[in-house]
Amino acid sequence: MKLNFEHHQTAHCENGVASNLLLNKGLKLSEPMIFGIGSGLFFVYLPFLKVNFAPGFSYRPMPGAIFSKAAKRLGIKIKREKFSNPQDAQKALEKNLEQNIPTGLQVGVFNLTYFPEEYKFHFNAHNLVVYGKEDGKFLISDPVMDYVTSLSEAELEKVRYAKGALPPKGHMYYPIYVPENINLEEAIKKGIKDTCKNMLAPVPLIGVKAMRWVAKSIPKWAEKKGTKVTNHYLGQLIRMQEEIGTGGGGFRFIYGAFLQEAAVVLKNDQLKELSQEITAIGDLWRDFAVDIARVYKNRNSKSNIYNELSKTMLHIADLEEAFYKKLRKAI
Amino acid sequence: MKKQDLPQDESNLKSANMTEVLYVTDENNNYTTANSTGWDAKKAALDESMELIYERIEEARQNVANNTVSPIVYFMELNKMDLGVLASYVGMWQWRVKRHFKPRIFTTLSETALKKYADAFGISVDELKNFDGK
What's the rounded Cα separation, in Å, for the pair A79 and A96? Predict the structure, then answer.
């Protein structure tokens, strides 16, 4: 059985699943729209939480937050279920397919057979859609893939019951109610306000203040922990910035696309200008990643390289702060 | 980023025959999407991370060969796990798993406990027990 489902490749898994599932329900919203309304732009620094032997950085909010927030602001209802027993989880999924419901799943990426080796980590908040079952295999629309794939029952069970941080526990979700008239203007405004509030939050762990904390820590790492560890931490920062589904520079570009669309919906030309501003900031994040990559290549480079990286990141934080202040005023 | 500036470097994506989508701007500064085969800066970060993993695996192998740690440590590194992830896969407390890292304790483990580890690593109990790191 194969449901009528359109696969669209997207830049980020969560927006992608949301956008593809809603399109299937007849609601056409672009990936950037979901991302902006769901306040996907974020920054958090968790120095005490070690991920992959480096401190935790993230350019995204908690997994699931984007779709939940976007749905709430648009008046869409999503049903979410978790199962303690893997067999129940499979039965519930098959029942959904029989009722013609393409279903979103939270999965771990470590055992995703179709991913390249370098992307297989114990990261459990990836999202994909199951849109059918043929010859004992589940048909998979993974939004970061160019093409649709399939997984056997055993393979799917493995990724749905991955362990470690944020275990999916068979988590499946699908929209059950989409209102006929959607107040897009109001939803966009709410999304923008929430993003500004988070990024300008007066706490050191999130938003612009967290970026500054990381920036100031770079020379300290070099002094206390040496070049090898510092380079690894910086590598983690790039991976979090640019890896599939976690993009920082990439996220700024999605936000730019959102503001461009929002400018039309709200008839607000200032948003179009701000779209260009965040695009320029996204370019700086990418330049920053290139600078870090250069540090790897010349391992014996002079010690003030870390001071320079720190300065670059502080500069980006200043630009972002100014950007969110303008954005808050613009709506 | 302008569409024409989007890097098309060779990367790890090639092994899975995939590309990634990015949001880029066209000649009129309007947003559109484009596919990329990869980017050197990102590849450098991924390679560094893989290198670190290979180093850890090699170190663990030598430690097993020198009988300073149990084979569990080697397979944990091989599966890119840390103590927390492994403990949740086998359903034991972290301190207990840590105890099983000691070769002397490892030899006293029951078949049931060994089976849990072997399943978590996707290998047989014999493969786990007989791994000597040599």
Answer: 12
pTM of the model: 0.91
Q: What is the nearest CA distance from A157 to chain B, expressed in angstroms?
A: 14
Q: Which domain holds residue A263?
A: 184-330
Interface probe, candidates A112, A122, A272, chain B, greatest B C-beta count within 10 A: A122
Q: Cβ distance A298 to A276 under 8 Å?
A: no
For residue A54, what is the nearest residue in chain B, using CA coordinates?
B49
From chain B, pick out residues whose CB is under 8 angstroms from the CB of A118.
12, 46-47, 49-50
Give this complex's ipTM: 0.88
Portions of chain B given CATH number 1.10.260.40: 52-130
**Strand locations in chain A, DSSP E?**
44-51, 54-58, 77-81, 103-107, 126-134, 137-141, 149-152, 172-177
Convert the pLDDT of each residue in A119-156 to its tens digit: 888 888 899 999 999 999 999 999 989 999 999 999 99
How many A-B residue pairs are in contact by the CB < 8 A criterion?
Answer: 118
Question: Would you say residue A263 lies in a domain?
Answer: yes
A232 part of a folded domain: yes
Least CB-CB distance to A293: which of B40, B80, B84? B40
Considering the domain architecture, whether residues A286 and A239 belong to the same structural domain is answered as: yes
Residues contacting residue A37 through CB under 8 Å, at least 6 positions apart: A69, A70, A73, A74, A187, A188, A190, A191
Contact A253 B84 (CB under 8 A): no
Domain B52-130, what architecture? Answer: Orthogonal Bundle (1.10)
**Nearest-CB residue to B88 (from A117, A163, A257):** A163
Q: Within 10 Å of residue A133's Cβ, how many Cβ atoms?
A: 19
Q: What is the pLDDT of residues A215-261, one digit of tens each?
A: 999 999 989 988 888 888 888 888 777 665 444 568 899 999 999 99
